[in-house]
Structures are given as C-alpha cells and as structure tokens.
Amino acid sequence: MQQYSGIISVILLFVDGLLFGVAVKKGIISAVLLVIAILLASYVGLSVPYLSTVDILRHVENIALSMYNHLGPIFVGYPIVFIVGLAIGIWKG
C-alpha cells in the first residue's frame, strides 16, 4: 500500500481541486460579500484575536516543508494537479 500512496494522494488532490472549483463557481457572490465584510470589519477595527498574517504564512510554510520532506519531488506536481482540478470544477460546475 505504501507504494501507491503518491498516486492516491495525487488523485485525492485532483478531486479536492475539482470540488473546490465547483464550490468557487457556486459561491462566487458569497466570496465577494465575505471580502467586503472583512474589509468593513477591519475598517471599523474588528479582528480575529491571536491570528495574524505572519502566523498564517508561517503555518502554511511549515505544512509545505513537511509535505515536501515526506513526499519528495512529487510535491512539485501537486499544485499543477490541484489547478487542473480547480479549472475543470469551475468550467463544468
């Protein structure tokens, strides 16, 4: 089963991109309204406590580094597979 883990991960990533693409197409108005709400909240002075952009970026960087160490060179193909799934989801969704 270990020998198929890379292939299974790529397939699951494609399906994830596909589902995300469908969700983006269906929820584009909600996303725009969410961005407007966040901008208005930040203008008023509201924010999520203990959460900053630096913390989010550091967490994403740690996840990416961990995935690269675990998967190796196949990690480079992951964004491509996700983007293909996303494009198909938006197109067909």
Note down, in words, how this protein is organized:
There is one protein chain. By secondary structure, the chain is mainly α. It has one domain. The protein contains four helices and no strands. It has helices spanning 5-26, 28-44, 53-71, 78-92. The protein is flat and about 55 Å long. The chain starts with a helix and ends with a helix.
The number of distinct structural domains comes to: 1
- Shape descriptor: flat
Helical residues, percent: over 70%
Percent range for β-strand residues: under 5%
Q: Could you spell the SSE succession in H and E letters?
A: HHHH
Keywords:
93 residues; mainly alpha; flat
What is the compact description of this entry?
By secondary structure, the chain is mainly α. Helix content is about 80%, strand content about 0%. It has one domain.
